[in-house]
């Protein structure tokens, strides 16, 4: 599937590096970013901006580390006109759940950024990778992605038609590594 001006882009971002679970007073959902994760988040924002990946909509897990990742990334993107939805369903989502959320998006959304967790972020990218996908990116998606890494999937169809192997995984970027 060639790139097109009609393309819709799904950007799947794994949250930045969080504090270890062992020291957390609260449960997993309340783990904050580590210092390195805070630095990574700023680098992610710059990488998204330089790649022209300013989202129309952000679907963000309700966990503390994903919300902090978005908050620290967004400065480089500017926030005017970006709708942000913090959703506990993203925290618990598997691939099928996440695809259902994306399929429900309105047609006015051209670029959506999902800030979520492994293994859902890489598995979703691998699931959507179809003809014309970058082979190295597909291999990396199958292996899983490190923190503060984003995958870019393009599709020319409407969101409601998004399904396995009908996207084009164009790249996986780990700007902070």
Give the SSE map:
Elements: E1 8-14, H1 35-50, E2 57-61, H2 64-73, E3 83-87, H3 88-92, H4 95-103, E4 111-116, H5 120-128, H6 135-143, E5 150-155, E6 168-173
Parallel strand pairs: 1-4, 2-3, 2-4
Antiparallel strand pairs: 1-5, 5-6
Protein model, in words:
This protein is of the alpha/beta class. The protein has a six-stranded mixed beta sheet, with helices on both faces. Helix 2 links the parallel strand 2 and strand 3. Helix 1 crosses helix 2 and helix 5 packs antiparallel against helix 6. The protein is globular and about 40 Å long. The relative contact order is 0.24.
For the termini, the CA-CA separation is 30 Å
The amount of beta strand, in percent, is 15-25%
Query: Roughly how many Å is the radius of gyration?
Result: 15 Å
Order of helices and strands: EHEHEHHEHHEE
- Structural class of the secondary elements? alpha/beta
Note poorly predicted spans: none
| Beta-strand segment tally | 6
Largest sheet: 6 strands, mixed
Short description:
By secondary structure, the chain is an alpha/beta fold. 33% of the residues lie in helices and 20% in strands.
List the main descriptive attributes of the protein structure presented here:
177 residues; alpha/beta; 6-stranded mixed beta sheet; 6 helices; globular
């Amino acid at each position: 599937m060639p790139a097109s001006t009609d393309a819709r882009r799904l950007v799947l971002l794994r949250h930045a590096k969080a504090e270890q679970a062992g020291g957390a007073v609260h449960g997993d959902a309340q783990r904050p970013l580590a210092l390195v994760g805070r630095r990574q988040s700023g680098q992610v924002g710059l990488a998204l901006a330089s790649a022209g990946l300013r989202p129309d909509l952000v679907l963000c897990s309700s966990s503390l580390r994903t919300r902090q990742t978005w908050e620290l990334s967004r400065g480089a993107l500017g926030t005017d006109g970006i709708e942000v939805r913090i959703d506990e369903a993203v925290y618990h989502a598997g691939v099928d759940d996440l695809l259902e959320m994306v399929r429900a998006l309105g047609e006015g959304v051209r670029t959506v950024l999902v800030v979520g967790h492994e293994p859902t972020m890489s598995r979703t990218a691998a699931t959507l990778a179809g003809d014309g996908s970058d082979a190295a990116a597909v291999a990396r998606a199958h292996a899983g992605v490190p923190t503060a890494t984003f995958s870019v999937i393009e599709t020319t169809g409407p969101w409601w038609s998004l399904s396995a192997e009908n996207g084009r995984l164009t790249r996986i970027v780990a700007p902070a590594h």
